[in-house]
Design a protein that fits this description.
alpha/beta; Four Helix Bundle (Hemerythrin (Met), subunit A); Rossmann fold; 2 domains; 8% strand; binds guanosine-5'-diphosphate; binds magnesium ion; nucleotide-binding; P-loop_NTPase; SRP54_GTPase_dom
């Protein structure tokens, strides 16, 4: 989706920057194309509309820097606005959670580092972003996989869901979400087993 979007925007910008002086009509045409590109990339209509309006507002009456062409100036405004929309108000890299607890499902190959990475991410979110994190292991395939996560949790000071013997992964995930909701956690890290042909579906 983003590749297609960047191709489309790239085309619009190429046409803009080739021109020395832009007329208002040039900008209008370009913004219409930007709007179409956003809609075709599945961006919702209100978001696309607000986006184009914000760019228009900033582009109109802006002092154009001498060293760049008006076209490049518009490209910069569009770029800044894209960063703003995609990144939101918060710090770059900060996790945005609209409706806690947010589940994060760790998937990947056996031995790929899912469990280790679960703990690393949990530690980072706890320490750097002040999030309350609950980790739960859904790995019912590998012996001691659940204990592995529990031990890591103790080492990094992050809570893990108590282990209940014989429970299946779906039940564990549901229990983790319930527990997280009751306990006021922001994030639930669900550490899964590797998918394999022997995995029950
Ligand atoms: N060198 C190195 N080893 C790692 C890293 N992450 C995990 N491992 C090791 O790779 C092995 C499998 O990791 P694990 O997290 O259990 O993988 P999982 O099966 O996907 O849960 C363990 O021995 C880890 O200590 C890493 O970033 N670097
Ligand atoms: Mg694992």
């Amino acid at each position: 989706m983003f590749e297609n979007l960047s191709d489309r925007l790239g085309g619009v910008f190429d046409r803009l920057t080739r021109q020395g002086a832009l007329t208002e009509a040039d900008v209008q045409t370009a913004l219409r194309e930007v709007r179409t590109a956003l809609l075709e990339a599945d961006v919702s209509l209100p978001v696309a509309r607000d986006f184009v309006k914000a760019v228009e507002r900033k582009a109109t009456g802006q002092a154009v820097t001498k060293s760049i062409t008006p076209g490049q100036q518009v490209v910069k405004i569009v770029h800044d606005e894209l960063v703003h929309v995609l990144g939101g108000e918060q710090d770059e890299g900060a996790l945005k959670i609209d409706n806690p607890p947010a589940p994060i499902l760790m998937v990947g190959l056996q031995g790929g580092g899912k469990t280790t990475t679960t703990a690393k991410l949990a530690k980072r979110m706890t320490e750097r972003e002040g999030k309350r994190v609950l980790m739960a292991s859904l790995d019912t395939n590998r012996p001691a996989a659940m204990e592995q996560l529990a031990i890591l949790g103790t080492q990094i000071g992050v809570d893990t869901l108590p282990i209940v013997a014989g429970e299946d992964p779906v039940a564990i995930a549901k229990r983790a979400m319930t527990q997280a909701r009751l306990g006021g956690y922001d994030v639930v890290m669900l550490d899964t087993a590797a998918a394999s042909t022997s995995t029950r579906r």
